[in-house]
Amino acid sequence: MQTPAAAHETVVAELIGGHAGRTGSHIKWAAIHTPRVTESGGPTATTPFTTTQRRQGNDRNYQTHRSTHLVSLLDGEIVEENDLGSIRRVTADNFPILAGMSIKRIVINPGAMRTPHWHANCNELTYCVAGTSLVSVLDNGSRFASFTISAGEMFHIDSGSLHHIENIGTEPAEFIIVFRHERPEDFGLGAAFGAMTDAVLGNTYDLDAADFAKNRRDTVDRKLAGRVGDPVIPSTAGYGDPHKFAVDAMSPPVGIAVGSARTARAQFWPALKDLSMYSLRIREDGMREPHWHPVTAELGYVHSGSARMTVMDPDGALDTWYMSPGDVYFIPRAYPHHIEVVDAPDLHFAIFFDQPTPGDIGYRASASAYSREVLAASFNVHIDDLPNFPFTASDPLLVNRNNPLDARGVGE
What we know:
412 residues; 36% strand; mainly beta
């Protein structure tokens, strides 16, 4: 397995981006998410963000617009929401730009669980934001695993594998889950039992049909359920497991003073097949350099901080938008984009990709790939007017923001 230090150049592969909407080939106004406020007028930490207000609290007063490439997961479709917790999702049904990926946010309260289930058409990659939970997995070939998951850790589930998530702590557990399909399909174990008669179930378990007479006959999945009694935690649950990866505990393969990227990718986590994730942190004096991903789409979640992103479409249309916690963006493969911190001391993004080993091409190395004669012709300037581009053999991924923040992005 490759070490983080040895992988620095290959990890200069994927990081953040965002892609927002447009009308025809015309540039649109930036999309803003501002927090809803309480009755007293102060923002709440857990309420969703909306794109119908203006950003407050600074000297910039941006006009708002709802982008077709940006959405709030906190305002996502409610799958289930009650005293046990909450499940909200964003799929292609409510975020049409999605292709090959979708995302959920699950909050499980103490004593509750996401009941055993499986996904019929996609693998799953999950990042734990908060809390401590027990995850159990029954894979093909009757291979069973049970392990604990805490904040900053991840787990991967193959399509079709039965699994559950159970809060074993005293605080709510929060998860961001990405699926390798824009419209994932689920089956619940309880609902699957409801599809069979008592006689069929009795035959399956060498029992009398009457033993199942009290079972509720229901094919609707009960996604959140309360636990009866204390959790049953195997003595081995704290050990490592191939399904599990402590992304935020790893030494960052990319790390400089102004930021870092910790990378859950196949070279460090062999369980990954068609998904990966970067835990990206950038200070306000840093920036993710402009770049694109040749064969990789990108789905990002804003965990903390606020940022501005710009993306370019093949028709030359530009889009710049602003993001706050709970926002989700999607970038199609090979679309150039960049990210910078705005109105916050730093940011943390969980960025998911539709490849196990994402790659990228950055603007910095691109300028080193060609002669000054080629660059002058491409930029339509005299060769003497070209900047003195520093030679860059490998893109740094993160750079210092030495210049003042622009009052507006190009795509505003």
